[in-house]
Amino acid sequence: MAEHLYRITVLISFIIAFVVVVTLPASIVAISDWDDVSGFESYDSDLLFRQDYSPPAPPPPPPHPPSASCQDDLGGVGSLDTTCKVVSSLNLTRNVYVAGKGNFYILPNVTVNCSFVVGCEFGVNVSGNFSLGENAQIVVGSFELVAMNAVFAEGSVVNTTGLAGDPPEQTSGTPQGVDGSGGGYGGRGAACVVDDKQDPDDVWGGDAYAWSSFLRPLNYGSRGGTTSKEVDYGGGGGGKIMVVVNATVEMNGRLLAVGGDGSPRGGGGSGGSIYINAYKMTGSGIISACGGNGFGGGGGGRIATDVFSRHEDPKIFVHGGNSLGCPSNAGAAGTFYDAVPRSLIVDNLNMSTDTDTLFMEFPYQPLLTSIFIRNCAKAAVPLLWSRVQVQGQISLLDGAILSFGLAHYSLSEFEVLAEELLMSNSIIKASYYFIQF
Ligand SMILES: *[C@@H]1O[C@H](CO)[C@@H](O)[C@H](O)[C@H]1NC(C)=O
Ligand SMILES: *[C@@H]1O[C@H](CO)[C@@H](O)[C@H](O)[C@H]1NC(C)=O
Ligand SMILES: *[C@@H]1O[C@H](CO)[C@@H](O)[C@H](O)[C@H]1NC(C)=O
Ligand SMILES: *[C@@H]1O[C@H](CO)[C@@H](O)[C@H](O)[C@H]1NC(C)=O
Ligand SMILES: *[C@@H]1O[C@H](CO)[C@@H](O)[C@H](O)[C@H]1NC(C)=O
Ligand SMILES: *[C@@H]1O[C@H](CO)[C@@H](O)[C@H](O)[C@H]1NC(C)=O
Ligand SMILES: *[C@@H]1O[C@H](CO)[C@@H](O)[C@H](O)[C@H]1NC(C)=O
Ligand SMILES: *[C@@H]1O[C@H](CO)[C@@H](O)[C@H](O)[C@H]1NC(C)=O
Q1: Which 3 state secondary structure label does DSSP give 215?
Q2: How far apart are CA 273 and CA 254, in angstroms?
Q3: Is residue 37 in a domain?
Q4: Which residues, 6+ apart, have CB-to-CB distance to 110 below 8 Å?
Q5: Which domain holds residue 71?
Q6: Which of 48, 80, 86, 234 has its CA 20 to 30 A from that of 342?
Q7: How many domains does the structure of the chain reveal?
């Protein structure tokens, strides 16, 4: 075998299959500063695998428990086979599943609170309509809704902020040590403690995971790190919210799967997951799976919408959390996938960061139509998964950075395949070189 005959190849192969449109000062830089070839000797495939771990598809969920009863379990009025109304606030002390052929309404000002139980799940599957009244709240780790129509009235909120259950096994979304770094999921958490020898671009807190689920995210976010050996000051991960509605979602409230706050002595939790599938969505509410604020900000989570008729509202956010310990390095943006145009959007709301949102393997069938990296988001395509291919446009706008290769571990060539590359005040970096054998 010729395994010792390493052939060292230096390559930066942009496949020029796109038209470059530069509308503002922009630069494409290839930095040849590989001065630490010894890094190659410490190449460790286990480490790589762990860092970029995307868990396998989870097993099918266990069958649902029997439905709770409208009157006995929920203190409601009516029946789930006609119309059940929850008329007064209640504290749940276990997971609850509500199913029936009728409508399910949570009336205005009512709070359904299950934050007593870690990762508490509240499921609703009704053939009729669902509504969450004005200023009503659902406070849980996981909320899953299946209904014909759904209304989230003004002032209402489904709040899973900081209430995540466990993230998938083998992922490293919660940072090790006592640096108070942010948790990771859709984007990496920020790390504020960086020693002189390290490149800030090469340091992060909790890692990203579950890339393959960006099309239909279903994982919990992760806790932030702490600054103390004794007390865990990290913010909790964002929970998860799934809304599957046959017809219309009227979204005037808020769906929150935000990372919990860790400030000032712990890292922010990473944002969780939100998935919405409907024919139509209206309203001017807010849908957010942002990272939590903390000493190091949490990374954003993942949101996907598959809505045939969706307008610019409601507002959707997946940016990283603020880093109190290093304000110029917020948590990395998470991912927002819009299934109807097949667009991936990575947007950090102009919060500057050195921390990456990782891109792994892109789906081939069908290809994504476009990728937008914008408002100070920083995306990286690490080794092994080095091709970024879309059918239409890759847009880097307003302080975006797209970089290829990871320090010390780079091992691949990379390709950008698109019809058009649109850059405005943004950078593509190809910083490292790879060794092939
Ligand atoms: C729920 O629990 C909280 C805190 O323990 C308590 O203040 C509140 O009154 C309870 N609400 C109901 C409806 O029992
Ligand atoms: C909800 O509460 C607000 C303020 O406490 C009150 O003004 C309003 O009338 C209540 N709404 C309903 C429908 O009870
Ligand atoms: C839900 O219950 C928790 C635990 O008692 C309490 O801290 C929190 O304030 C409650 N949330 C709401 C919105 O009532
Ligand atoms: C909702 O209920 C229907 C019929 O009761 C069932 O077929 C479906 O699988 C359920 N959906 C989910 C997501 O549990
Ligand atoms: C559900 O809501 C839609 C739209 O508001 C309405 O037309 C329909 O009658 C409602 N269904 C039931 C069972 O109340
Ligand atoms: C959601 O929950 C978080 C954490 O408990 C809380 O800080 C926040 O105010 C809540 N948001 C809303 C809109 O209720
Ligand atoms: C879903 O809604 C459409 C109209 O929006 C209706 O034609 C269809 O029958 C509904 N499907 C189910 C399973 O109720
Ligand atoms: C981010 O900055 C850009 C350019 O400076 C500006 O056009 C855009 O409106 C800002 N976006 C937000 C969400 O603040």
Answers
A1: helix
A2: 14
A3: no
A4: 86, 87, 88, 89, 90, 133, 136, 137
A5: 6-20+63-436
A6: 48
A7: 1
